């Protein structure tokens, strides 16, 4: 009977955990990319903002898990070449057309060190996130799970996590204005109807 080695057992468990996290992140990346691509193609015009809000919120939760775990260290020093760099320009342009009139917004790049706002766009944010996710998926599909996880974690902390957070807040702002910016008489009628419905 082979001797139990606790160190090797711990290392095997750690690798298994990383592979499970990579699989979960790959699935979440696929969902985000599918939703954003469909929305950019005009597949769901009436629900576009809601679908984007849900996609970015779900992905941000997955990204938060990447930020919370210890640094992932790939086995190789250099990133392997697992395919050509994904082109997200068609996606960005599709989103820009869809979001015309709502695309631009103002933000503070780093709330800890900056005090001047700059102009950003939702279409660029969503496309940047897609670019980072696709690059990680290339590694994952090539069987380089730890490399994929390292890339997703690194790019989350350095870029796409921030872009997703800014996009999420802006999408929420758009939906809030759409739902809440109603004429006073319309709001009063809705409140009156709601109160009478409760009494009945």
Structure description:
Helix 1 runs antiparallel to helix 2, helix 1 crosses helix 5 and helix 4 packs antiparallel against helix 5. It contains six helices and two strands. A two-stranded antiparallel ribbon has the order 1-2. 69% of the residues lie in helices and 4% in strands. The termini are far apart. The mean pLDDT is 84. By secondary structure, it is mainly α.
Topology:
Blueprint: H1 6-40, H2 48-68, H3 89-98, E1 104-107, E2 118-121, H4 122-141, H5 145-180, H6 184-199
Antiparallel strand pairs: 1-2
Helix pairs in contact: 1-2, 1-3, 1-4, 1-5, 2-5, 3-4, 4-5
- What is the N-to-C order of secondary-structure elements (H for helix, E for strand)? HHHEEHHH
**Count of helical regions:** 6
Radius of gyration: 21 Å
End-to-end gap:
75 Å
The largest β sheet comes out as: 2 strands, antiparallel
Overall shape: elongated
Strands, total number? 2
Look at the structure and give the mean pLDDT.
84
Largest sheet strand order: 1-2
Helix content bin = 55-70%
Low-confidence stretches: none
Oligomer: single chain
Q: Roughly what fraction of the amino acids lie in strands?
A: under 5%
SSE-based structural type: mainly alpha
